[in-house]
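Appendix B. Raw example, untouched.
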Amino acid sequence: MTETVVTRFAPSPTGFLHIGGARTALFNWLFAKAQGGKMLLRIEDTDRARSTEAAIAAILDGLQWLGLDWDGEPTFQFARADRHREAVEQMLAAGRAYRCYASAEELEQMRATAQAEGRPPRYDGRWRDRPASEAPEGRAPAIRLKAPTEGETVIDDLVQGRVVIPNKDLDDLVLLRSDGTPTYMLAVVVDDHDMGVTHVIRGVDHLTNAARQTQIYEAMGWAVPKMAHIPLIHGPDGAKLSKRHGALGVEAYREMGFLPAALRNYLARLGWSHGDDEIFSTEQAVAWFDIGSVGRSAARFDLLKLQNLNGHYMRDTPDDELMAALKTALPHLPGGPDFSARLDASGRWEAFRLALPGLKERAKTLVELVDGARFLIDERPLAVEPAAAGLLTSDARDLLARLSERLSALEPWTAEGAEAVVRAVADDAGVKLGALAQPLRAALTGRKTSPGIFDVLVALGREESLGRIEDQASPPRAA
């Protein structure tokens, strides 16, 4: 019988879901989907001082926005403390753990001595084989793993390859603190075992933890899950990823106007590849994903590449779907709620829909899409940008006056009909089309750039278009 693949994403709720965590979640999700398995979610909230309900909500919201669902209800690690202590009792009974009565001062002296001798700080095992009768009166013990002192601990990592760590380099780690609280190392192992996790996919910074956790599995007599430690993410300059590179929370990318599908595509390519394919659907990613194709080198996060990819997704998304995505995103975009309210108040959602094909050709994010569409909600008389105002010369205003008269008779009001009129007015005046079209754009939008000017005329409609043109046209000259 084939084993069902079970992965897990296990964030600590001490802050937002950052971009590295999102990629880890994505790789777990893709691998589980590709193998017909399950991805579980565990909130590792044992750090009570730093874990917050707001952070938990942000993580869940970020995963849901990214479209990364999980199976079953989230598991909360702190609530399982009794089960963690139960596992320690089993190790004590089996002689695989022991009570350590070393004081904080003794532990500090060990660290100082190791540092002075140029050695890594390690517990020296002084309580490993001492009888309980020697325990200091009134001192609560910590419980330590009785780790093997000879041989090697081997991790056959699905990404990093075979990793061998001499056991002499690993000391007897603490399983339960002297106040009875479980440590992270213990809790992770017990939870992964009890949740039936078959594959642990996480950042390479956990590789050292893997050796210690393997020893706990072996002490409990449990099968060790397969492990895959994926490379870290660096900035485009090769330095450790920081906020200046884009090391932000997932919610920041929503606020910057990225589409979830585009971000999934981009994150999937950070460390994993499928031939030369750069742009692919989530369905293709699921079909193609192979953890063995994840490289060992650090991936490089490039915000400009993400923006370009997002622009491709926006252009390829059908207008109705993009409209729906925008309406969902507007509450989270800078100025989005105001933009939405003003479209509602002016009844210009249909105008936005008509302008969308031209708008999305020029935008790389939903924020740019909204910015490009602001001319739809601007009130007359328009505030014309300085660069566009330079187009409204005296001659241009005369041309606009002639155009206004001719357009007022246009029936029906269509892009094709408007184009014919504009071209005819330009021909009659003996000027190139741009000499009229550019001032017309400035009059209609207040800007030098916009969707196709004939599409703008249709989106604004007859009355609004003529009103804006007349606001900028020269008054009729006296006979």
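End of appendix B.
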